[in-house]
Amino acid sequence: MKQIVYVLLLAGFCPRVGVAQSRTDPFLESLLRSSATPFLRRVLDKPDSFRYQLIYTRIDRDKHNRPHFHNYYYRVNPSEYFNPASTVKMPLAFLSLEKINSLRRYGVDMNTTMETDSSYSGQSAVSQDTSAADGQPSVAQYIRKIFLVSDNDAYSRLYEFLGQEWINRRLWQLGYPDIRITRRFVPMNEDENRHTNRINFVAGGAGRTIHTQSPAYSTIKFDFSHKVLIGNAHLDRHDSLIHEPMDFTTHNNFPLEDGQRILQSVLFPGSVPRKQRFDLRPDDYAFLYRYMSEYPRESLHPKYDTGEYFDSYTKFFFFKAGRSHIPDYIRVFNKPGWAYGFLTDYAYIVDFKHNLEFMLSGTIYTNSDGVLNDDKYDFEEIGYPFFKEVGEIVYQYELERQRAVKPDLKRFQLQYGHGTPAE
Description:
single chain, globular, 28% helix, alpha+beta, 423 residues, 5-stranded antiparallel β-sheet
């Protein structure tokens, strides 16, 4: 397995800053508006309030079953900030498997016990994981929890394994200069987020350390010259109301088109240039596909309360409003996020019964009172219904769309925790 080598010129590399125009394709706008309910039309008519962006990716197969992609955009603008929330967990999961592959010479793989030390202020240690079958923390278990229920601690542990500098330089090297990942999902200042923990990989029942990763400090320079202020007021970390917009200038940044491209690159690695592919092995892809599409009820380790973690808990497009089972013939390979009034989802949707596939990526801001960080958002009233209706419209279009070649989707029919494949 080749190792990732960084070009030294990247040392001074920073994301682009500029003003871009929103991109809208008349086809997607017409498709949505022609079938929209009054609710959806009201949302679409207020882009400045809801800050929505959408990408519909149509997939057509040729006679060799090779997929060909066509993206349709609605208000997509990399300069219009949205808080990506948990969607940033997706590239970190991919990067973690890539980095694990570079450690195989030490006998480390995704299932090796990974003990995290506390090496700097604000950090915490981890030596066990009761959700795992063996009770031990590992990169594999963190990735499972990220995709099954969007676990925040799992993300923070992968952030610590990768290190802030490694994350950003590698994503920029892959061709995503506008992505910026600066923080864990725990209260920390900028300096603390630049410091990451000592990590020991341990093998065998005797707890023999086979590889140690020293604490790291990120010297990377981010461009924070473009101020990002949202809302009318916000609660600070002490729950005091501040009558000023919330400042997202130094927060994570993950433009919608970049996320769509990253998801496509893992589900269909042959569809992107080799230089934009993560350095993953066949068993890495199989592992990711399973846990990106498995429902919490199917998971054995971790085991989840399905009353709380229902099928559509992390599946926003056309499923979120209902808590009933999603039919097994439909699978959603995705990663959503929700925070500060923003809802976002990157999804590849497969219907094995009707032999159809498509991708949908979207974001919306739902915060009618203009106060951020108060956990009072319009997710239930606006956000989830928006995703549900957009997903239903595109799904119905896909059901009726004529295809020159019927796709063979067997590659995505997988075994899940209950032991049965998707229909």
